[in-house]
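Researcher: Good morning. I'm working through a list of sequences from a screen, and I'd like to move beyond sequence-only analysis. For each chain I'm collecting a predicted structure so we can compare shapes side by side. This is the next one on the list. No need for commentary yet; just the structure.
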Amino acid sequence: MQNKNQFIGFPFYVFITLLLGVIAAISLRDLLAVGATPYAILCALLFAVHIALYWLNMKQFQSERWWMFYYAAQTLLIIALVSIPYGPQIRLTILGSAVISIIGEALGLWGNTRRALILGLYYFAITLVVMLRTVAPGDLGVALTTVLVNGGFIVLFMVVLNQQLAERQKAMDLAESLESANAKLAASAAKIESLTLQNERQRMARELHDTLAQGVAGLVLQLEAVKAHLAAERTERALTIVEQAITRARSTLAESRAVIDDLRAAPANLSDAAHEKVERFIQATGIPCEEDISVKTHELPLEVTTHALSILGEALANVARHAQATKAKVRFIVQGDIVEVEVHDDGKGFDVDQEASGRYGLLGMRERARLADGQLTIESRPSDGTRVHFWVGRNS
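Model: Good morning. Structure tokens for this chain:
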């Protein structure tokens, strides 16, 4: 069923009312002129009901029961109107105008549909039957041609109008779909922006923790060592550690600035970068550390090796801050598509189940392992210290 908004209802029914009203007035004039007053009254009543049904149909046409009654009633009214004894020309005019109006209305209400086609053929058949019974055989051709020409023009006009209205509705539907799609895209973009901002905040938190927290922790340990050496009057050793602390402070400052500016460069040599982290740990803590560092040809993404170095640095920082260890061992292996980092100390250990409480560094290591698509295990026992193991590639 065609959307009623597609049918220009009110102007169309005003036109039908005016057209049929004029024809009714002419018919009444002719009937009164010949003294057929009863027929004139009947004609007026039939025209009034016929026009009134049009207006009612504008609001009720979507009800199936209504339109079945409507088209049956209009058919009877048209036949009754044509059956009143007018002159031949008035009868033909009434028949043609009434049939053309109701076919045009059907096209307007139902559009270019099968239902409108069936109604059109139905009323054309009624027209043909009535003309055969009321028009003289000699005038039948002219009368039929007149009805077909006038009716054909109206039908063609309505068909074209319906097509334009249908195209307009398609354009409106498409515009609504595009607007809805744009709204969804805007919502998705906002969500992506929010997630991107959240991820960037987390990344910055990790990077700043790995630079500032680790760097400052190392400086604190070095300053404590300086204090101990000065108390023992080991001035030369204290000066050496001070120089190391100055170098470490400058390095930490440079790395922090690079993180803030998002210009942090990857280390030129992974082996040297890992060795440097171990050396800094030894210098800051004095804890002997056995190292096994092996970096061979690989095609691993920069992000993975960066996460591996950061996990190594955080694990060593945790040993320095919390373990109270007397020795440590480091393995840093990069080969092919495999990365393996292991830091093992003989310290006091801790409760792994409570690691999230106040231990942002451990949470950061787990997050880096996830981002590198790797695995991280943390084992800690009072009798065997703590072992941090991170790997990517094999069985990850």
